[in-house]
Design a protein that fits this description.
The protein is α+β, with helices and mostly antiparallel strands and about 130 residues long. It has helices spanning about 10-20, 25-30, 30-35, 85-95, 110, and strands at about 1-5, 40-50, 50-60, 65-75, 100, 115-120, 120-125. The longest helix is centred in the last third of the chain and has 12 residues, at about 85-95. The chain has a 7-stranded mixed sheet, sandwiched between helices. It is globular and about 30 Å long. The protein starts with a strand and ends with a strand.
C-alpha cells in the first residue's frame, strides 16, 4: 500500500468508496468532487494498493493552527489494517495545522485511539 496526495487519476476510486458508503455528494457531480478535493486550503490524500484506491481522507485547513477532517473512508474489504490511521498520520502534517477537529457518528472508538481532547467532536494532535 502506498499513501500519496490525491490527483485526478484517483477520482474514480474515491467516488466508488463514497458510493459504497452511501455518501451521494461526490458521486453526484465528479467534476465538483475533484474541485473540492483540490481546492485552496484542502489536503486530500489516498491509500493505493496496486492501482486501486482503497482509502482517502479530505481535510480543510487554515495552514497554521486549525484543520478539519471533512471525509475519510477505507474500502470495506481493506478495513482494520491500519489504513485509516495511516491516512490521518500522513495527511495531518501536510495541512500545516497544529490540530485536526472532526465530528463522527460511526467511528468513536477509532478516533479515541488518537491523542485527543473530547468536545462535541474530536481534536487530534498529529
Amino acid at each position: 500500500m502506498n499513501l500519496t496526495r490525491y490527483d485526478r487519476t484517483h477520482l474514480d476510486g474515491v467516488l466508488a468508496i463514497c458510493a459504497a458508503e452511501d455518501w451521494p455528494s461526490f458521486p453526484a457531480d465528479p467534476d465538483r468532487a475533484h474541485t473540492v478535493l483540490t481546492a485552496p486550503g484542502v489536503t486530500s490524500v489516498v491509500a493505493v494498493d496496486g492501482n486501486e484506491v482503497v482509502g482517502f481522507a479530505y481535510l480543510q485547513s487554515d495552514g497554521h493552527i486549525q484543520a478539519h477532517l471533512s471525509l475519510m473512508a477505507v474500502r470495506a474489504d481493506h478495513r482494520r489494517q491500519g489504513i485509516g490511521r495511516a491516512l490521518l498520520e500522513y495527511a495531518g502534517p501536510l495541512t500545516g495545522a497544529l490540530r485536526v477537529d472532526l465530528v463522527t457518528d460511526t467511528a468513536e472508538d477509532f478516533y479515541q485511539s488518537f491523542q485527543h481532547h473530547s468536545y462535541r467532536g474530536f481534536r487530534i494532535y498529529p
